[in-house]
Amino acid sequence: EAEARDISRKMTFASRRFLHKELDVLGHIDEDPAVARSIRQQEPLMVYAPRSRAALQIASLAEKLAGRVEEPVRESGTQGFFRRLRRLIPGLESRA
Predict the structure, then answer these.
(1) I want to staple 4 with a disulfide (CB 3.0 to 4.6 A). Which of 28, 52, 68, 78 is the partner?
(2) CB 45 within 8 A of CB 52
(3) In this prediction, what percent of the chain has a pLDDT beyond 70?
């Protein structure tokens, strides 16, 4: 947890200084042996060990991130994909 705080502090500083953007830290994912085992099995962690500590933390972070999406975009194709991507990354929507 201390390492995660240190890394997030450094990334927040770099983002503010070089990108002029604020980062919202949503959390971190603890070191979990299930990750290495899922890699060796060549199976996604969320399938291999969905109740592992890391999988539960990933799910929690995904829920937090999904809560930030205002409304679903119903566009399809490459243009729709890039439009959705720009909306998810702060500052890119103004460059469209």
Answers:
(1) 28
(2) yes
(3) 70
